[in-house]
Design goal:
The protein is an alpha+beta fold. 26% of the residues lie in helices and 23% in strands.
């Protein structure tokens, strides 16, 4: 799989407003923090906006890294097994 665009999160941050714009183009969000994995279906059963933003934004209010969009799926955070499942 080849990335169309790569952004260095240390140099270019995405704040809440930009993150919401990305969410409008997605139908699924997989957010990982430690061992916790949250899988949101934004089309069938969208969560409250506050819950979703808490899962994907860091303490500074910017989109957490790593964050990758595969088609209409946004993956935030890293857990090797979960990444393998998502990119199949």
């Amino acid at each position: 799989m080849t990335a169309r665009e790569v952004v260095d999160a240390r140099k270019e941050t995405l704040a809440k407003r930009e993150t919401i714009a990305i969410l409008r183009k997605t139908t699924r969000v997989v957010a990982m923090k430690g061992k916790k994995v949250a899988d949101y279906d934004l089309k069938r059963d969208p969560p409250p906006e506050k819950e979703l933003l808490e899962a994907i934004l860091g303490p500074t209010g910017n989109l957490r890294a790593p964050a990758v969009r595969f088609g209409k799926t946004l993956v935030v955070g890293f857990q090797e097994d979960t990444w393998k499942d998502v990119i199949k």
